[in-house]
Amino acid sequence: MRRILLLALLPALALAETHWVQFRTGPFELYSDGNSKHARETLGWFDQLRYVLGYMLGNPDPQTTRPVRILLFKSAQERQNYPYIPPILDGRDRWNILLTSGDPIPREVLRDCTRLFLESNTGRMPAGIEQGMAELLSTIQVNGTHVTLGAPPPPDERTRDWARLHLFATNPDYYAKLRILLYNLQKGADEDPAYLNSFGKSRAAMEKEVDQHIASANYQTAEVDAKALSVERDYKEQPLLSKEVRLALADLLVGEPSRREYHALIQDNLYVADSYEGLGIIALRDKQPDEARRDFLESTNAGTPSARCYIEYARLEPDNAKALAALDKALKLNPKLAEAYTLIGRRQTDAVKKIQYLEKAAQLSPREAARWEELAKACLDEKAFEKAAQAWRNAEQAATTPEDRERYSASRVAIDQQRLDWEEEERKRQAEENERELRKLKSQAVAELHAAEAKANAGEGPAPEKVEKWWSGPKPDSHATGKLTRVDCLGRQLRLVIEGDDHKLTRLLVTDPSNLPILGGAAQTLGCGAQQPRPIVVDYFARRNAKLATVGEVATIQFP
């Protein structure tokens, strides 16, 4: 068995024992066992792609949510040890790109790299714009500090989205204006005003130009401003240890080969925490949650610095306290992880805290419509209608399909009716509670009167006087009389507007309508809005509220 394991590891071990070096710039790190000149030129290609895209987006330093590692093999034979790798591979703790030294960078790698930057740096833009940008930059040409855009893809891949961005990027009158368009779209502006503000032409007029551009099929290239750099000076070569290369190759998470390499590293007491994390991720992909949870726990016990490991462990941990402790650790390692805030929010029993965490998660990942949807629903549960409407609006902008966009829009439009329905229910509930309280107070007063009469008849006390004192709380310090002209509903509070005999208005706050004593007349209630003027007597505490423009808080109300 030991011999079989060693045979399986031979390709990776052989690669690890060759001479590997690394270069770094921005979010990129490049590992290579081949020609250093080719390595620097390859890294320069990605660096210039990032620079040009950053110019278009108005962001001089676009980043990715995780580092991007480029593995540049010196031969196609080495690269073929990993034949089924997608253009950009989601590895253990970073994204991975596998290339062969001296070969052109595949278009799909540059396309997906552009998408990765869009996901990490921008608000959601129309799908056609984002798709066109990815296709345009998939054919970027880089020669040191000379960068050219516009080389056409194969004829069957020249989509309208590509042609639109080709026109905007290669026409000297439009290239600088493209930044303005993209800025407006990132901020959620509608396309029509965004086009007009950027090009001084309507979207319909620009689409006609796209039609003409496609019909002419005259797809010229254009040289654009590039990053000033020297690949020899700016990209410093650093040697890599064989154990670092072993971990990097295992971190590709290519199933059984990676699992074997992780176990070998643990046996050699190398990168123990990292290896257990990698084993946990592979177990998750193999739908082995119990094994994954054990591996993630081993990694945390070994002191992993990976926030992702703590998040994955918390996701699988049924004990709420342990899960929250793990998520807190994840946020200390990386306070910008939206998923950690989402998981904490879902485990909250306090509705206000739940909304706060879900809102933070959505703000950190504004392109993820599902997070805005979850926030909107949580807000609706707490009748926070205004915040829910904004969340639906953000979900609508982040939607990637017309169907989702229409669904979010309908949910946003429905907010007003939901609010009105709830307010009507609240008014009915408060009226019923007030009526019950009124009947209770009247019953108490009658009972006290009968009790006093009984005592007097029995010779146990003086004959009762007329019972009027029905307020048993702290004594109010102010008094107002006049006519009630308006009741403003402020969420769960009310504001009374009383017009005195001198026509001066007094505004008073009812902090808890459900516990407000109201006497006088039959079934007196406080409905929202303008009132048919009626006499009112109010005892209140003189407590000003500048924000609500009230001079006191109501203690009792009597309608003469």
Structural write-up:
The protein is of the alpha+beta class. The chain has helices spanning 2-17, 36-57, 76-79, 107-121, 127-137, 160-170, 175-186, 191-199, 203-216, 231-234, 242-250, 256-267, 272-285, 289-301, 307-316, 320-333, 338-346, 351-364, 369-381, 385-398, 402-457; strands spanning 21-25, 28-32, 68-73, 89-90, 95-100, 141-143, 146-149, 222-224, 238-239, 478-490, 493-499, 505-510, 518-519, 529-541, 552-558. Among the domains are: 1-19 and 241-317, Serine Threonine Protein Phosphatase 5, Tetratricopeptide repeat; 21-234, Neutral Protease, domain 2 (Orthogonal Bundle), CATH 1.10.390; 478-558, Nucleic acid-binding proteins (OB fold (Dihydrolipoamide Acetyltransferase, E2P), Beta Barrel). A hairpin with a 4-residue loop joins β4 (89-90) and β5 (95-100). α1 (2-17) packs across α11 (242-250), α5 packs across α6 (160-170) and α16 (320-333) packs antiparallel against α17 (338-346). The longest helix is centred in the last third of the chain and has 56 residues, at 402-457.
Number of helices: 21
Count of β-strands: 15
Instruction: Estimate the helix proportion, in percent.
Output: 40-55%
Percent strand equals 15-25%
Can you give the mean pLDDT? 90
Task: Give, in spatial order, the strands making up the sheet with the most strands.
Answer: 4-5-3-2-1-9
Quickly name the level 1 CATH class of the domain at 21-234.
Answer: Mainly Alpha
Which geometry do the CA atoms define? elongated
Main β-sheet: number of strands, strand sense, barrel status?
Answer: 6 strands, mixed
Termini separation? 97 Å
Structural category:
alpha+beta
